[in-house]
Specification:
The complex is a heterodimer. By secondary structure, chain A is an all-beta fold. Chain A has no helices and twelve strands. Chain B is globular. The chains are: A mainly beta, B mainly beta.
């Protein structure tokens, strides 16, 4: 079964606009962590932001914020004031608190920022 | 800023040959991982390594694969007899202790099996 679902098609966003990338997850574990990574065309995986399942507040990291809705099992990434350098694939991932540290990744969202 | 480094960045190998992919994790991290990403697909977990032994492996990580930490700094992934379907980007990652620490990824090794 899919643990992380990212179903949006490729997105075009105007420079300086905000964009929201959807991510839903599936777990029965009460303790888990949610991560977003950026993969530009050069291929590396860049950590963006983390949200713990017990965190009371939504995580923020500069222009990145995570809209965490626990009851709906969603962890959407919001990128504010998009820049051309934000064009990339964005992956949502989850680590469950079952003693293992593996990350389960979604299929990714493609974002293209246009001037 | 500390980072995970991987060598080589690209490797082309003939089917049936052995390859070793190398990684230097961040020095104070305790967990080490290998992931792979077949072109255009999602990132898949292969194996995690902690305290000098495999802590978890996926169904992809069969007898063809092995990992080693030969010294205090390197972490290697060996594929014994490569197949065409092993062509992928292989990422090494490391993280500190605990659940609430992010995994930092290396820049990847693109393996092409011909």
């Amino acid at each position: 079964a899919q643990k992380i679902t990212q179903t949006q098609p490729g997105m075009f966003v105007q420079e300086k606009e905000a964009v929201t990338l959807d991510c839903t997850y599936d777990t029965s574990d009460p303790s888990y962590g949610l991560f977003w990574y950026k993969q530009p065309s050069s291929g590396e995986m860049i950590f963006l932001i983390y949200q713990g399942s017990y965190d009371q507040q939504n995580a923020t990291e500069g222009r990145y914020s995570l809209n965490f809705q626990k009851a709906r099992k969603s962890a959407n990434l919001v990128i504010s004031a998009s820049q051309l350098g934000d064009s990339a694939m964005y992956f949502c991932a989850m680590r469950e608190g079952n003693g293992n540290n593996r990350l389960a990744f979604g299929k990714g969202n493609q974002v293209v920022v246009i001037p | 800023e500390p980072e995970v480094t991987q060598t080589p960045s690209h490797q082309v190998t003939q089917m049936g040959q052995e390859v070793i992919l190398r990684c230097v994790p961040i020095s104070n991290h305790l967990y080490f991982y290998w992931y792979r990403q077949i072109l255009g697909q999602k990132v898949e977990f292969l194996v995690s390594f902690y305290n000098n032994e495999i802590s978890e492996k996926s169904e992809i990580f069969d007898d063809q694969f092995s990992v080693e930490r030969p010294d205090g700094s390197n972490f290697t992934l060996k594929i014994r007899s490569t197949k065409l379907e092993d062509s992928a980007m292989y990422f090494c990652a490391s993280s500190g202790p605990g659940q609430n620490t992010e995994a930092f990824f290396g820049q990847g090794t693109r393996l092409t099996v011909v």
